[in-house]
Known about the structure:
The protein is an all-alpha fold. The protein folds into two domains: 1-29, no CATH class; 41-101, no CATH class. It contains four helices and no strands.
Amino acid sequence: MNYYIGANEGLAPWIIVLLAIMPVLPALLALKVAFVFYKSMDELQKKIMSESVIISFLLVGFGTFTYGFLEGAGFPPLPSIWILPALIGFQGLALAFVSRKYK
């Protein structure tokens, strides 16, 4: 869905694609920082983090899978750009619950 009608006129398609994916570059840096942070954790912290990531993956995965069927029943489409923020948000919530188990 093009939200900026007329803004792309006169630009080469490769430039439009390049501009569209530019916000991914800082996200890649954040991904690297998160990986380095994970590698610096001790074993218990890694276990807690891993459990919360798995819970988030399963909740968001099952939720989007279910919503995909609901879209076929007439529900409005869910933009895929919201999946990563949902994963991160649910991982934070799951982290709070999982860490309580180890205190």
